[in-house]
Structure formats: C-alpha cells, structure tokens
Specification:
heterodimer; A: 182 residues; mainly alpha; 6 helices; 0% strand; globular; B: 294 residues; two-stranded antiparallel ribbon; 63% helix; 4% strand
Chain lengths: 182, 294
C-alpha cells in the first residue's frame, strides 16, 4: 500500500479541496438560514465539520483549502465581504485535523475516531485563536475582548459541532471507501 | 433551494478595474491603515475607503443586513468596551484620568470592593478612532462579494502568483456551489417527506447538532461519490501535467497600473511615516480638550 504523504496535491486533492470548499460554503450559508432555537447569540454553524472531515479523509492541504475557501464562499453568498484572518482561521480548522489522514486506515475504528476528534479540537483552538487575536491589530480590540468576545464563543460551538459530526461523517465515508477501494 | 451570488454586472468604475489591481489596493490600504491610531491618518484612510465603496455603487437594500451587523458589532465593542474600559488603547487611554468626563463610585455588597468606572476624553477620542478603523476595513472588503465576478477568482489568484492547482481548485469550488445547493434542497425535501422538521429541532445544543446529521451526511457523501467521476475524467485528460490555460484572461490597462502604483505609494508612505518619523500614535485634539473644559 502506498505511504500517505501530507503534502500530496494531485488531481484527487484538487477536486476534493474544491468540493469541500463548496460544501462548507453552501452548508454554512444554508444552515445559517434555518431557524435553530436555543443557540443563543452564538454563531451556530454545524457545517464546520466539513473542513475537518475533508482534512481527515483527504489530507491537510485539502482540509485547509476547504476551510479557507469555504469560509470565503459562505461569506460571499451571505454578502459579508472578505475577512482574511477568519478565512485563515477556518483553513487551520481543516489543516490540523488533516494530519489524522496520515494515521487513519480504518475510518470506523474507535482509535481513528478519537484521533480525528482530538485533532479537530486542536484545529479549532489554534484556528479560532489566530483569527480572534488578529482582531487586536485589525480592529484594535484588547486581548481580553479577543478571547472572551471572539475566541470562546467561536471555539466552543465549533468544538461541539466538530466532535459530534466528524465521527458521523467518518463512519458514513467508510462505506464509500469499502465500495470504491480508494 | 435558491442560492445566488451577490455579484451582478453593474458597469461601474470599480467593476471595470482588473481584479488583481483591486486586491492589491485593498490589502495595501488595510496594512497601511492598521499601523495608525492617530485620528487624522485614520480619517484619511476612511475617506479613501469610502470613495472606493461609493464607486462600487452598491444599493442600500442589498447591503443593509451586513451594515446592521457591522454597526451593532462596532457599537457593542466600542460602547461597552472602549468607552468604559479603554481596552485595546495605549497607556494614555488606559491610565490617564486627568481629563475625566464622568465618574461613578460603586461598592460591591458583602465583599466591599470599590469600583470606579469612568469616561475620560482620551477614551472617547480612542473610541472614535477605533470606530473609524473598523468602518474603514468594512468599507474596503464588503464590496468584494457584490462586485467581483466569481468566474474570475481562479485566474485572478493564478495571475497573482498562486500555483495552478490551487487556483483551479478555487475555480472549481465556485462552479460546484449551485449544484450542491440544489442537492441540499432535494435532500431537505426528501427528509421533510419522511417527517424530519428542521425548523422544530428540539433538545439541547448537542441534540440539535446530532439532528443536523440527516441533512449534512447525505449531501456530503453523495457529493464525494459524484466527485470520484470528476477525478477520473480529469486524470484521463492528464490534468496537471502541463501548465494550464484559462477561459477568462485578465489584462492590465493603464488605470490598473495607476491603481497599483497608488496602492504601493500609500503602503510605502505609511510605513515610512510610522517607522522613520514615528508619527501616527494616539492623538487627542486640543479643541476636544477645550470643549470638555480642560
């Protein structure tokens, strides 16, 4: 069996990065439109599982592009404009779980699910921390506001979304892997 | 389910510029503006961004929702955070209490701690500077979604230096959007026919997230299965073996060169002013102090 490399970016990665980005953009736009009670004033975005899952399934570069470009697409569909550091933060949310790709052989095994979840949590923390801290020099807010006002609500909801939905997607994807042999 | 790009042809000065020149201008202005806290410099960048925004000729109806969000964010951050605490500001804003406009004294019951919230002239001026800076960034980037043609993203970023494959991935992503939105609509209808009511998701946050799975999983897995055919088709056509050509080609015109030179000058001048002359730190106008009786 061919050894997986994190930096591989061939035809397969080009297509799945594009697919992941489009899915993340569309799902975040459409699920934001649906009424979701009890989420308070938090940005409830179940679609954050997409870049994490695409990273886990197809590698870190695919995860990064899915998150980075997907956030741009979602913002463009909603008309929010372009927020580079938040796009980068979303890219990192896909990049870090993508390193699970190197260790995962069976998408159903508890070990794989735990690795994916741990790296997804790490990805959210690093990505959202970077995006939140960027507001210190972009908007001029202070460290505490960046953490309390931006990082905590964004990271908390993304972590919950990721640790629930990424394993569900992995188990569903396992059936495809078995069928296509890819 | 209808998903449409906010973009439409407007035949404006901004839309007729090369997208690469516009990205260069936006980033040059952003990196120039965020170096300053002096209101005089920030007002210059605000005016520049405002001219750029007005040249895009966006209707209020189409941008209203975004502006409401931006203004609420600015008011909350500025109102609660900056005016009362001065957070994010330099020491002159945080520590200087000589020019106090309002002060209160409140003792916390039981523990007896004394809290003295105050508003100073410095905090008020800093709040104005922060509002100006935040609105400058918003004015620069909000028009992107409305005025840049999604079909040109791939070639734009390729010509800005991104590798072929990454640029093509970007191009492909924008083409996938309408198909995936349609698939999402079909899946949503199919699940509703089975009794799934997304508008009435009950339970706590975790239960609600789990209940989103019947929507997200089929759309994602179907898309992956379909994409395998695209991979095979591209492999059969030897994708990636040679540099690719693009359907849309971009060409700089004299006004694009003028905008790029102008952007470079703004960025270089601001770096020079900040680093060489040390100008641009937080500044309180004398007339504001006099106005408050100091």
């Amino acid at each position: 069996m061919e050894r997986k490399k994190w930096y591989t970016f061939g035809t397969r990665e080009v297509v799945f990065a594009a697919l992941g980005a489009a899915l993340y953009g569309v799902l975040s736009y459409l699920t934001n439109m649906l009424a979701l009670p009890a989420a308070g004033n938090l940005a409830f975005r179940p679609a954050v599982c997409i870049p994490m899952f695409f990273g886990v399934a197809f590698g870190p570069l695919v995860g990064f592009i899915s998150g980075f470009l997907g956030n741009i697409i979602g913002d463009f569909l909603s008309g929010w404009g372009f927020w580079f550091w938040w796009d980068l933060g979303n890219g990192i949310m896909g990049l870090i779980p993508g390193f699970a790709y190197l260790f995962i052989k069976d998408f159903r095994s508890p070990r794989s699910l735990i690795i994916a979840d741990v790296l997804s949590v790490l990805g959210v923390i690093v990505g959202m921390l970077l995006a939140s801290l960027s507001e210190i020099f972009v908007s001029g807010i202070d460290f505490r506001t960046a953490i309390v006002g931006y990082f905590v609500p964004a990271a908390l909801t993304n972590i919950i979304n990721g640790i629930i939905l990424v394993p569900i997607l992995m188990i569903a994807y396992d059936a495809i892997v078995a069928r296509t042999g890819r | 389910m209808l998903v449409s790009w906010r973009y439409r042809e407007r035949n404006t000065f901004i839309q007729n510029l090369d997208p690469r020149a516009r990205w260069i201008f936006m980033f040059a202005t952003l990196f120039a503006a965020i170096q300053f806290w002096d209101l005089r410099f920030l007002l210059f960048f605000f005016a520049l961004s405002l001219v750029y925004y007005l040249l895009a000729r966006l209707a209020w109806q189409e941008t209203r929702r975004v502006w409401v969000f931006v203004i609420v964010l600015v008011v909350v951050i500025i109102g609660i955070n900056t005016v009362l605490t001065g957070r994010g500001g330099p020491m002159a804003v945080l520590r200087d209490t000589r020019h106090t406009v309002w002060e209160a004294r409140w003792t916390v019951p039981v523990v007896g701690w004394v809290i003295r919230p105050n508003i100073t002239v410095e905090k008020l001026v800093f709040a104005v500077a922060q509002i100006t800076r935040m609105l400058t960034v918003a004015l620069l980037f909000i028009p992107v979604a409305y005025t840049l043609n999604p079909n040109h993203y791939g070639v734009t970023f390729r010509r800005l230096g991104l590798p072929d494959k990454a640029a093509f991935s970007m191009d492909l992503a924008f083409r996938f959007v309408p198909t995936l939105a349609r698939d999402f609509g079909i899946t949503l209808d199919a699940q509703r026919a089975r009794g799934y009511e997304v508008e009435k998701l009950s339970g706590g946050l975790i239960a609600q997230i789990r209940k989103m799975a019947p929507l997200i999983v089929p759309v994602t897995i179907n898309a992956i299965v379909g994409a395998e055919d695209i991979v095979n088709a591209m492999d059969l056509r030897c994708f990636g073996l040679r540099p690719r050509t693009w359907l849309h080609e971009l060409k700089y015109r004299p006004r694009d060169y003028a905008l790029i030179v102008f952007s470079a000058l703004i960025l270089l001048a601001s770096v020079f002013v900040r680093l060489r002359w040390g100008i641009g730190e937080f500044w309180v106008p004398d007339w504001v102090l006099r106005w408050f009786g100091y």
